[in-house]
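Hi there, hope your week has been kind to you so far. Would you mind checking whether the tokens look sensible for this chain? I owe you a coffee for this, so here goes:
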Amino acid sequence: MSHESANATLALAEEIHQQTTHMGSTRIMEVCGTHTVSLFRSGVKSMLPENVRLISGPGCPVCVTAQGYIDAASELCSKKGVTIATYGDMVRVPGRGGSLAEARARGGNVKVVYSARDAVEHASTHPEETVVFLAVGFETTAPATALAVLEAEARGLENFLILPGHKLVIPAMEALLAGEEVPLDGFLCPGHVSVIIGSEAYRPIVADHHRSCVVTGFEPKNMLQGLLRLLQILSGSEPELDNVYSVAVRPKGNTQALSIIERVFKLDDATWRAMGVIPKSGLALRETYARFDALKRFDGLDVNDDYDPPGCRCGEVIQGKVEPADCALFGASCTPMKPVGPCMVSSEGTCAAWYKYGRR
């Protein structure tokens, strides 16, 4: 961080302190896991006044994935001729039959990829394998999965499949508010998801649930700008929607990416870890592309079963009901080297961020 940038960051932190001098306790949820990590790593969280409490939400895609999905992936990995292609964070998530890393140690084929297209390429060059890509993530990664399906179709690949697991941010925010278990004053909305869906996507949160939303990026200065703007709104009488990340986020988002998602996927009910089934919060392949669905190719797979290991409070952490330190396993029997739940595994997981940056 340059000297000029550091000074601007400190000035914003001072403005936030001045803004909150006469405000009561304020609870703000950062929806995005990347925000959670950035807030800790940059020191922004430690700059905030005591009456501003940041609460981590269900913004880590690995963490909100139901246990049944992890178990289904492990089951597929044990099948002869099947290769699981996945982003790295999924490999160490514990399942009831062990993690994918353990399945690989037992002889299963697990390939870590950096994009969905890498999985398509692997399927193309290894026709003897059935490659199943774990399609996990929010709207940020869904366009890439959709393009991978379209490419597999164009190339006539019969050995490329996806295990659908994409989820949508807005229905999860609405489900949290509808539950009324976690009192929230406003949301710090994720920059990268908003690049796709647009800032106006949060309008129902403001109009229907009367909670203010501010879209922001991930640099310390931008996060503080977002927090300051949200606190300014909260000091007024009416909820508002604003976007301080206009350099990347447009009101209607990336219409081309949204069109590609709509072409390949349809809305579907989805099971979230600890949150149950949230209507129309997931993406399923349209009938036109159903032949690429691993759930249809392999009978008996259940991705909707949910389960938390005994003592693990990951499900409560992702809903903002508790903080990682409230879990008796945190930092004791559950560490990044020996994780019990997904929140300690993922690079965007709240428990992993707390363990690495926030334990003191």
Remarks:
- The chain has 16 helices and eleven strands.
